[in-house]
Design goal:
4 helices; single chain; 126 residues; mainly alpha
């Protein structure tokens, strides 16, 4: 990993400072309200004025859940890379989505761990 120059470090600090300025701080009243709600038990909160959500078609999967990303190096077939990149930017996100989908499929009892493994024989056939 190469080291950052002084100018790059300065730019990063300026971006971070701007971001901190843009972050709105909570008022005393908002902090008081949050503490009051947090102190209540779930069963003591009145939800009678909130309508139940019956139609989840507009729900967004993963809107608030963001698992930590970790950079990796993989060797993939060139035709697989070409296919992932064919739709334009976001091929790594697409690959991640495909792998996550496969992972959830195989970890719901349908997958690799629950299957009997068949091993190929190496050597002469009878």
């Amino acid at each position: 990993m190469r080291k950052l120059t002084k100018e790059q470090k300065r730019d990063i600090r300026a971006i971070a400072a701007k971001r901190d300025e843009d972050m709105r701080k909570l008022t005393k009243e908002q902090k008081r309200d949050i503490r009051a709600i947090a102190a209540k038990r779930d069963e003591d909160i009145d939800f009678s004025d909130a309508p139940p959500v019956l139609d989840w078609r507009g729900a967004e999967i993963g809107k608030f859940y963001r698992p930590k990303k970790k950079p990796v190096t993989m060797r993939l077939d060139s035709d697989v890379i070409a296919w992932l990149k064919a739709d334009g930017p976001g091929y790594q996100t697409k690959a991640n989505w495909l792998l996550r989908h496969a992972m959830t499929h195989f970890t719901e009892g349908k997958g690799l761990a629950s299957r009997k493994r068949r091993h190929r024989r190496v050597g002469k056939a009878k």
